[in-house]
Amino acid sequence: MKTMWHVGRVEKIETITDALKMFYIKIDSDEPFDFKSGQFVTLDLPVSEKRQQRWKSYSIANNPNEDNIIELCLSLYPDGLGSRYLFEVVTIGTEIKLKGPDGGFVLPEVLDKELIFLCTGTGVVPFRSMIQNVFQNHIPFKKIHLIYGTKTESDILFLDEFEKYALQSQDFKFDICLTKAYHPKHHHGRIHDVYLDKYKEYEEDRVFYLCGWSQMIDEAVLHLFKELGYLRSQIVYELYG
Ligand SMILES: Cc1cc2nc3c(=O)[nH]c(=O)nc-3n(C[C@H](O)[C@H](O)[C@H](O)COP(=O)(O)OP(=O)(O)OC[C@H]3O[C@@H](n4cnc5c(N)ncnc54)[C@H](O)[C@@H]3O)c2cc1C
Prior knowledge:
The chain is of the alpha/beta class and 241 residues long. The chain has six helices and twelve strands.
């Protein structure tokens, strides 16, 4: 199938910390930019001649909307070609070539199983879109539990929203694990301790969704599969690299 490229214009940039930014990008098209929560886009950034270095994928953080705006949330890697370009060069009005939406990291049609979302850092991004979708569109669900690891309190993304949704439904809850800080409301340490304790009793109506970089995903898959006895079909993941 022919790759569909679009032009997006940066409408707004929000600085969350020195190393975390939200980019609001309007897709220039008369057609609605339709996507499913959990999917990603690939940006073609003018940072190199090599396609592998130019093309960078980012999960979409929001839901499809009439304004054709997608929200991307990025971490800065000090030696990263793409993220440095986005942090240091891109400003409001910058045009970005992008393709997508792509990816099969999406929720099933019917949410009749317990869904456990495991993520670290910007791995929370596709889950924000999924959770927003469920609440904004009043989609019935059995249970959603987000277990989200990050370094310090200032790095926690979308906290207000997660708190709001947890008040709206007892079936949605979230745990935050801080690796480099202590906070009375959050866990200290990595995400693995939380699900290893909470979900040690095997349950067939339970699916784990994992998103982030390879080290966390490899560890979580090993724990769930080897230690807790969950089946491959109960583990779905999106690997950032
Ligand atoms: C489907 C998909 C969705 C993604 N969504 C997001 C997103 O929503 N937000 C986001 O910030 N990024 C996301 N990424 C990662 C993103 O595509 C880039 O890889 C990231 O921005 C780094 O690119 P760069 O050009 O800045 O770094 P490069 O020039 O490619 O350099 C690599 C940098 O990445 C870091 N890195 C490489 N491997 C690892 C690793 N295993 N663990 C930790 N860090 C590593 C290193 O610090 C290194 O500096 C996603 C990736 C995929 C495949």
